[in-house]
Amino acid sequence: MTERAIFEAEDVVKSFGGIRAVTGATMDVREASITALIGPNGAGKTTFFNLITGFYRPDRGRTAFDGRDIHGRPPHVIARLGMIRTFQLTKALTAMSVLDNMMLAAPNQPGERLSGTLLRPFAWRRREREVHAQALELLEIFSLTRLAHDYAGTLSGGQRKLLELARALMTQPRFVLLDEPLAGINPTLGARLLEHMQRLRREEGVTFLFIEHDMEAVMNHADRVIVMAEGRVIADAEPHAVRADAAVIDAYLGAG
Ligand code: ATP
């Protein structure tokens, strides 16, 4: 983890009619960190993810990724910059093989830009081979190799979560956002997913921000924990400090 913030949000606000979902969230995420976003149910965590990845338009606030203003930018622009969130597989994707899902998640082929030159077929084939190799490597890491030719719809809930992360990694992102990656996943697959996040952070400097209710995983794997309650950030510290924070204990007990 470096001291540099790869992502910054300042006073982000969103209401739905009379419901104030995010009431002024300010935070930063340090580069190459694994940062957890926690908070009681209804604290505004998922809405915040939707706001910063362009799926909802904030009423107010400022967001920046890698020093660039991304406030109000559409999801595909934000994704292209290298800030990507995982998605649940849609109906169309579940009717496709696991491997095809991976191939489809790769960004546009650079060969397209070579259109009209003699190089094109070779560049395209080389690119396809690279994408194929990358897909197989990720499937191997996530223990999905033997399911590569099965329909994605036949995967268990946990295997789908792994495929969702593997798909996101096909874009070679710099900042990955995950909404409850461990929910519904068996502990072995969960441990594998966390190990893989640690390795990517360590070896490739990828940054992760994950929403999670599994406190053990948060305490053991996050470098930093940001706590939201009632639409804003009430704590931001290392795991052991957050666990002892009176405002955090209050927010959880109050929500219970
Ligand atoms: P959980 O941990 O239970 O997933 P959360 O922290 O992710 O909760 P959000 O799902 O962001 O919380 O919800 C924050 C508040 O905003 C809740 O009161 C919720 O009902 C409300 N809310 C979220 N999305 C919408 C929407 N599209 N329309 C109306 N209200 C919404």
From TrEMBL:
PROSITE patterns named among the record's database cross-references: ABC_TRANSPORTER_1, ABC_TRANSPORTER_2
Name recorded for this polypeptide: ABC transporter related protein
GO CC term (a single one): plasma membrane
GO molecular function: ATP binding; ATP hydrolysis activity
Gene3D superfamilies the record matches: P-loop containing nucleotide triphosphate hydrolases
InterPro entries: AAA+_ATPase, ABC_AA/LPS_Transport, ABC_transporter-like_ATP-bd, ABC_transporter-like_CS, BCA_ABC_TP_C, P-loop_NTPase
Residue ranges occupied by any ABC transporter domain in the UniProt entry: 7-255
Source superkingdom: Bacteria
Alphabetical UniProt keywords: ATP-binding, Nucleotide-binding, Transport
Native organism taxonomy: Bacteria, Bacillati, Actinomycetota, Thermoleophilia, Solirubrobacterales
SUPFAM superfamilies, per database record: P-loop containing nucleoside triphosphate hydrolases (SSF52540)
